[in-house]
Amino acid sequence: MATFVLLHGSFHAAWNWHKLIPLLEAAGHRAVALDLPAHGKDRTAPRHATLAHCVTTVLDCVAGLDAPVLLVAHSRNGIVISQAAEQAGGRIAGLVYLAAYLVPDGRAMMDYALLDAESLVARNVSPPLDARRAARLLGLFRSGWLRWLLPRLLPASLQTHRLKRAVYREALYHDCPDDITALAEALLESEPNWAGFTPLRLSEEAYGRVPRIYIECLQDRAVTIGLQRRMQRDSGCAQVYSLDSGHSPFFSQPAALARLLELSVECCGR
Fold this sequence. Notes:
GO terms for molecular function: methyl indole-3-acetate esterase activity; methyl jasmonate esterase activity. This is Alpha/beta fold hydrolase. It comes from Duganella vulcania. InterPro entries: AB_hydrolase_1 (IPR000073), AB_hydrolase_fold (IPR029058), MES/HNL (IPR045889). The protein has about 270 residues and is an alpha/beta fold. The chain has a single domain, classed as Rossmann fold. The protein is built from eleven helices and nine strands. The strands form two sheets. A six-stranded parallel sheet has the order 2-1-3-4-8-9, sandwiched between helices. Strands 5-6-7 form a three-stranded antiparallel sheet, with no helix packed on it. Helix 2 (about 50-65) packs across helix 3.
């Protein structure tokens, strides 16, 4: 039996794993889905939903579990499991990146997001993603004290971004049942900005010792396959699995995803 801690991606919350969790439990595993700060039932103000706060949420969960766990992250929150593995003191058995941002030491999620010219998400957020402004913010976030000051000074309009409702299905759910888009219209929320601009601090001695498994989504229109494979090359993975799916296989192919997670357990020696 393995214990999985499941992290949603941008705009979502723990609810997005509702089809997957029963399949993992039926196979004898334990699965815990988290609401990260400022998502779902968590009422953290967006300006305080930093990478450090997200990592603390994960580590607090892991500390309450009685065995090493596999952290599974979708999309943006690959950055959270990477940083959590650096700080977890050996309690993480493996990291599974589901079409997720796999970012090396010293880089931020936005360094890679700006490379994904074909992403329907990058082209359809509000306020719009301005590449030059994003590059300036990345520079400021690499500058020590400014990283902590900026979220406290900038207006609420710059604290979060949203995906335009008109592209929910095309960008995230094009291969999913119609009721998923209806569910998303009711539940998707704004995404806090600051974790995505924060450079990761990773070492070979901690993060580097944890096996990394990547599950790529071949028809992804949000984090496109070209970017997924660039991140795999830049960081390296113990194993790569492929799903012929869009960005949300936990909705479109939950049984296939559950099988790959079970294979990931074997890859991590659990």
